[in-house]
Amino acid sequence: MAGPYQSILLFGPPGVGKGTQGEILARIPGFFHSSTGAIFRSLDMTSDIGKLFYQYSSRGELVPDDVTIKIWSQHAYASTVIGLFKPAQDLLVLDGLPRNPAQAKLLYKYINVLKIINLVCKDREALFERMKKRALKQNRADDAKDGVIRRRFEVYEQETRPVLEFYDPALITEVDAMGSPAEVLWHILEAVAPIQTAHFQNPL
Questions:
Q1: Is 145 within 8 Å of 201 (Cβ atoms)?
Q2: pLDDT tier at 194 (50, 70, 90 boundaries)?
Q3: 147 near 41, Cβ under 8 Å?
């Protein structure tokens, strides 16, 4: 890898819409969306890295931080080799990574964080209802259970939210996640469009 990837982090609690906004940004030239969940789901389980992932996932265990970063970095590099991701032109939009401060430290040599979009929702119950509807729509009944949803929020508050403290507060822009997808995108673009312009004017 030639130098760190110029990156934007999509951050926020479960169900807040990080994946939706990442997918929308991916359709705009100059952005490359990298979703950790999608990467894990696309792994070839017969490959070395796929077997390593399966060792943990098959036991219901969380994938260790170093393995997560290894899988992600290999996928990012492979995307550059086949031309999907062009670091000299594209801003990397990270969704689902880092999940804890340890991962943020491990990512330090791979990415240069230019902006963090922190999607926020002050009405937690509204977010719970959104997650229930999404789980049922995607036929994931277990994810629609109150206990499962509340546990995911507990994990977020304990492990993931502290990631924000790892970065310079000046990099963080809060965006209300409960507007329409277009409205949320509008506010995200207000924050990241100037960064993309600067990246185009000063390519790597």
A1: no
A2: very high
A3: no
Read off the pLDDT of residues 119-146 as tens digits, 9 standing for 90 and up.
998 888 888 887 777 777 766 666 667 7
Domain count, the chain: 1
Q: What CATH number should be reported for the domain holding residue 176?
A: 3.40.50.300
Task: Give me the domain span that covers residue 18.
Answer: 5-198
Q: What is the pLDDT of residues 33-69, one digit of tens each?
A: 998 878 887 888 888 878 888 887 766 567 889 989 9
Q: Are 9 and 116 in contact (CB under 8 A)?
A: yes
Helices (H), 58-118: 65-81, 101-107
CA 184 to chain centre: 16
Q: Please tell me the distance from the alpha carbon of residue 101 to that of residue 106, in angstroms, as a whole number.
A: 9
Tell me, yes or no, whether 33 lies in a domain: yes
Compute CA distances 148 → 9, 131, 136, 154, whole Å: 25, 11, 13, 10
